[in-house]
Design goal:
Layout (H helix, E strand, L loop, with lengths): L5 H12 L2 H27 L5 H14 L2 H15 L8 H27 L2 H9 L4 H31 L11 H12 L2 H33 L1
Helix pairs in contact: 1-8, 1-9, 2-3, 2-5, 2-7, 3-5, 4-5, 5-7, 6-7, 7-9, 8-9
Length: about 220
Protein backbone atom coordinates (compact mmCIF):
# COMPACT_ATOMS: atom_id res chain seq x y z
CA UNK A 1 0.00 0.00 0.00
CA UNK A 2 1.34 3.42 -1.00
CA UNK A 3 2.08 5.76 1.91
CA UNK A 4 1.79 9.46 1.15
CA UNK A 5 5.00 11.30 2.14
CA UNK A 6 3.68 14.51 3.71
CA UNK A 7 7.12 15.90 4.56
CA UNK A 8 8.35 15.41 1.00
CA UNK A 9 5.15 16.95 -0.38
CA UNK A 10 5.59 20.09 1.74
CA UNK A 11 9.31 20.31 0.95
CA UNK A 12 8.51 20.43 -2.78
CA UNK A 13 6.84 23.85 -2.68
CA UNK A 14 9.97 25.93 -1.89
CA UNK A 15 11.74 24.10 -4.74
CA UNK A 16 9.15 24.49 -7.48
CA UNK A 17 8.00 27.97 -6.41
CA UNK A 18 11.42 29.28 -7.47
CA UNK A 19 10.42 28.53 -11.05
CA UNK A 20 7.16 30.49 -10.95
CA UNK A 21 9.03 33.49 -12.37
CA UNK A 22 9.88 31.45 -15.49
CA UNK A 23 6.25 30.36 -15.90
CA UNK A 24 5.05 33.95 -15.46
CA UNK A 25 7.70 35.26 -17.85
CA UNK A 26 6.50 32.87 -20.53
CA UNK A 27 2.81 33.51 -19.80
CA UNK A 28 2.89 37.32 -19.54
CA UNK A 29 5.16 37.74 -22.58
CA UNK A 30 2.96 35.42 -24.64
CA UNK A 31 -0.16 37.27 -23.50
CA UNK A 32 1.19 40.70 -24.46
CA UNK A 33 2.62 39.68 -27.83
CA UNK A 34 -0.35 37.44 -28.52
CA UNK A 35 -2.85 40.22 -27.82
CA UNK A 36 -1.02 42.63 -30.12
CA UNK A 37 -0.95 40.06 -32.91
CA UNK A 38 -4.55 39.03 -32.24
CA UNK A 39 -5.73 42.64 -32.53
CA UNK A 40 -3.98 43.03 -35.88
CA UNK A 41 -5.46 39.76 -37.14
CA UNK A 42 -8.93 40.72 -35.91
CA UNK A 43 -8.77 44.13 -37.62
CA UNK A 44 -7.60 42.68 -40.94
CA UNK A 45 -10.37 40.07 -40.90
CA UNK A 46 -12.93 42.66 -39.72
CA UNK A 47 -12.12 45.00 -42.61
CA UNK A 48 -12.03 42.02 -45.01
CA UNK A 49 -8.73 42.98 -46.60
CA UNK A 50 -8.47 40.92 -49.75
CA UNK A 51 -6.26 37.82 -49.79
CA UNK A 52 -4.62 38.67 -46.44
CA UNK A 53 -7.82 38.13 -44.45
CA UNK A 54 -8.35 34.75 -46.11
CA UNK A 55 -4.78 33.69 -45.37
CA UNK A 56 -5.15 34.78 -41.75
CA UNK A 57 -8.35 32.76 -41.40
CA UNK A 58 -6.35 29.69 -42.45
CA UNK A 59 -3.61 30.72 -39.98
CA UNK A 60 -6.16 30.96 -37.16
CA UNK A 61 -7.72 27.63 -38.13
CA UNK A 62 -4.33 25.87 -38.05
CA UNK A 63 -3.31 27.18 -34.63
CA UNK A 64 -6.76 26.60 -33.15
CA UNK A 65 -7.05 23.13 -34.64
CA UNK A 66 -3.70 21.59 -33.73
CA UNK A 67 -2.23 20.67 -30.30
CA UNK A 68 0.06 23.20 -28.65
CA UNK A 69 2.79 20.62 -28.10
CA UNK A 70 3.00 19.89 -31.85
CA UNK A 71 3.28 23.63 -32.53
CA UNK A 72 6.14 23.96 -30.04
CA UNK A 73 7.97 20.99 -31.57
CA UNK A 74 7.42 22.36 -35.08
CA UNK A 75 8.85 25.76 -34.10
CA UNK A 76 11.75 24.51 -31.97
CA UNK A 77 12.83 21.45 -33.93
CA UNK A 78 11.21 21.85 -37.37
CA UNK A 79 11.72 25.51 -38.27
CA UNK A 80 15.26 25.43 -36.90
CA UNK A 81 16.16 23.00 -39.70
CA UNK A 82 14.90 25.18 -42.54
CA UNK A 83 15.47 28.72 -41.20
CA UNK A 84 19.17 29.24 -40.43
CA UNK A 85 18.87 32.12 -37.93
CA UNK A 86 16.52 30.05 -35.77
CA UNK A 87 19.15 27.37 -35.14
CA UNK A 88 20.45 29.27 -32.11
CA UNK A 89 16.96 29.85 -30.68
CA UNK A 90 16.72 28.62 -27.09
CA UNK A 91 13.79 26.76 -25.58
CA UNK A 92 12.48 29.78 -23.68
CA UNK A 93 12.25 31.89 -26.83
CA UNK A 94 10.61 29.02 -28.72
CA UNK A 95 8.08 28.54 -25.91
CA UNK A 96 7.14 32.24 -25.91
CA UNK A 97 6.92 32.27 -29.71
CA UNK A 98 4.80 29.13 -29.82
CA UNK A 99 2.42 30.28 -27.08
CA UNK A 100 2.20 33.73 -28.68
CA UNK A 101 1.12 32.31 -32.02
CA UNK A 102 -1.27 29.85 -30.38
CA UNK A 103 -2.79 32.51 -28.13
CA UNK A 104 -3.11 35.03 -30.96
CA UNK A 105 -5.28 32.60 -32.91
CA UNK A 106 -7.66 32.14 -29.97
CA UNK A 107 -7.67 35.77 -28.86
CA UNK A 108 -8.23 37.07 -32.40
CA UNK A 109 -11.66 35.43 -32.36
CA UNK A 110 -12.48 37.10 -29.03
CA UNK A 111 -11.27 40.47 -30.36
CA UNK A 112 -13.17 40.08 -33.62
CA UNK A 113 -16.39 39.33 -31.74
CA UNK A 114 -15.81 42.27 -29.39
CA UNK A 115 -15.18 44.67 -32.30
CA UNK A 116 -18.33 43.48 -34.03
CA UNK A 117 -20.34 44.09 -30.85
CA UNK A 118 -19.64 47.84 -30.97
CA UNK A 119 -22.48 49.74 -32.66
CA UNK A 120 -21.56 50.36 -36.32
CA UNK A 121 -23.13 53.80 -36.01
CA UNK A 122 -20.16 54.93 -33.94
CA UNK A 123 -17.72 54.16 -36.73
CA UNK A 124 -19.98 55.92 -39.21
CA UNK A 125 -20.16 58.97 -36.94
CA UNK A 126 -16.38 59.06 -36.67
CA UNK A 127 -15.97 58.86 -40.44
CA UNK A 128 -18.57 61.59 -40.93
CA UNK A 129 -16.46 64.08 -38.95
CA UNK A 130 -13.35 63.32 -40.96
CA UNK A 131 -11.62 60.66 -38.87
CA UNK A 132 -9.78 57.91 -40.72
CA UNK A 133 -10.70 54.25 -40.26
CA UNK A 134 -7.53 53.68 -38.24
CA UNK A 135 -8.04 56.67 -35.94
CA UNK A 136 -11.72 55.83 -35.39
CA UNK A 137 -10.86 52.25 -34.62
CA UNK A 138 -8.03 53.02 -32.17
CA UNK A 139 -9.69 55.95 -30.40
CA UNK A 140 -13.35 54.96 -30.33
CA UNK A 141 -14.08 51.35 -31.26
CA UNK A 142 -11.15 49.41 -29.74
CA UNK A 143 -11.44 50.93 -26.23
CA UNK A 144 -15.06 49.78 -26.08
CA UNK A 145 -14.24 46.42 -27.67
CA UNK A 146 -11.51 45.75 -25.09
CA UNK A 147 -14.06 46.14 -22.29
CA UNK A 148 -16.29 43.53 -23.93
CA UNK A 149 -13.34 41.23 -24.61
CA UNK A 150 -11.88 41.27 -21.07
CA UNK A 151 -13.68 38.12 -19.79
CA UNK A 152 -12.70 36.08 -22.85
CA UNK A 153 -9.13 37.43 -22.85
CA UNK A 154 -8.83 36.63 -19.15
CA UNK A 155 -9.83 33.05 -19.85
CA UNK A 156 -7.26 32.98 -22.64
CA UNK A 157 -4.58 34.10 -20.18
CA UNK A 158 -5.49 31.25 -17.84
CA UNK A 159 -5.12 28.87 -20.79
CA UNK A 160 -1.71 30.40 -21.55
CA UNK A 161 -0.58 29.82 -17.97
CA UNK A 162 -1.66 26.19 -18.18
CA UNK A 163 -0.21 25.85 -21.66
CA UNK A 164 3.17 27.10 -20.44
CA UNK A 165 3.58 23.70 -18.78
CA UNK A 166 4.28 22.34 -22.26
CA UNK A 167 7.51 24.35 -22.33
CA UNK A 168 9.26 21.59 -20.40
CA UNK A 169 8.91 19.34 -23.46
CA UNK A 170 11.45 21.52 -25.29
CA UNK A 171 13.85 21.78 -22.38
CA UNK A 172 12.59 24.81 -20.45
CA UNK A 173 12.79 24.42 -16.68
CA UNK A 174 9.61 26.07 -15.40
CA UNK A 175 7.08 24.73 -12.88
CA UNK A 176 6.35 21.54 -14.73
CA UNK A 177 9.98 21.01 -15.69
CA UNK A 178 11.10 21.42 -12.08
CA UNK A 179 8.43 19.00 -10.91
CA UNK A 180 9.44 16.46 -13.53
CA UNK A 181 13.06 16.58 -12.34
CA UNK A 182 12.10 16.25 -8.68
CA UNK A 183 9.78 13.34 -9.39
CA UNK A 184 12.37 11.55 -11.48
CA UNK A 185 15.10 11.98 -8.86
CA UNK A 186 12.99 10.78 -5.92
CA UNK A 187 10.56 8.40 -7.64
CA UNK A 188 7.72 10.06 -5.74
CA UNK A 189 5.60 11.14 -8.66
CA UNK A 190 2.29 11.26 -6.81
CA UNK A 191 3.42 13.90 -4.31
CA UNK A 192 5.40 15.78 -6.96
CA UNK A 193 2.67 16.20 -9.52
CA UNK A 194 0.06 16.86 -6.83
CA UNK A 195 2.26 19.71 -5.60
CA UNK A 196 2.63 21.21 -9.07
CA UNK A 197 -1.12 20.87 -9.70
CA UNK A 198 -1.79 22.76 -6.47
CA UNK A 199 0.67 25.46 -7.49
CA UNK A 200 -0.97 25.99 -10.89
CA UNK A 201 -4.39 25.98 -9.22
CA UNK A 202 -3.36 28.67 -6.73
CA UNK A 203 -1.90 30.83 -9.52
CA UNK A 204 -5.13 30.65 -11.52
CA UNK A 205 -7.22 31.39 -8.41
CA UNK A 206 -5.14 34.50 -7.69
CA UNK A 207 -5.46 35.65 -11.28
CA UNK A 208 -9.21 34.96 -11.12
CA UNK A 209 -9.50 37.48 -8.30
CA UNK A 210 -7.64 40.10 -10.33
CA UNK A 211 -9.97 39.34 -13.24
CA UNK A 212 -13.04 40.00 -11.07
CA UNK A 213 -11.58 43.29 -9.80
CA UNK A 214 -10.81 44.39 -13.36
CA UNK A 215 -14.26 43.49 -14.63
CA UNK A 216 -15.91 45.33 -11.71
CA UNK A 217 -13.78 48.40 -12.34
CA UNK A 218 -14.66 48.41 -16.04
CA UNK A 219 -18.34 47.93 -15.23
CA UNK A 220 -18.30 50.84 -12.78
CA UNK A 221 -16.77 53.05 -15.47
CA UNK A 222 -19.93 52.59 -17.46
Amino acid sequence: MYIFDTDFFISLFPIIIKYIKVTLQISISSMIYGLLLATIIALIIHFKIKVVSQLLKIWVSIFRGTPLVTQLFFIYFGLAQVIPFLKNMNGLTAAILGLTLNASAHMSEAMRGAISSVDKGQMEACLSIGMTNLRAMTRVVLPQAMRVAVPALSNNFVEIIKGSAMAFTIGVTELMGAAQMEGASNYKFFETFLAVMCTYWIITLIFGQFQKLLENKLSNAY
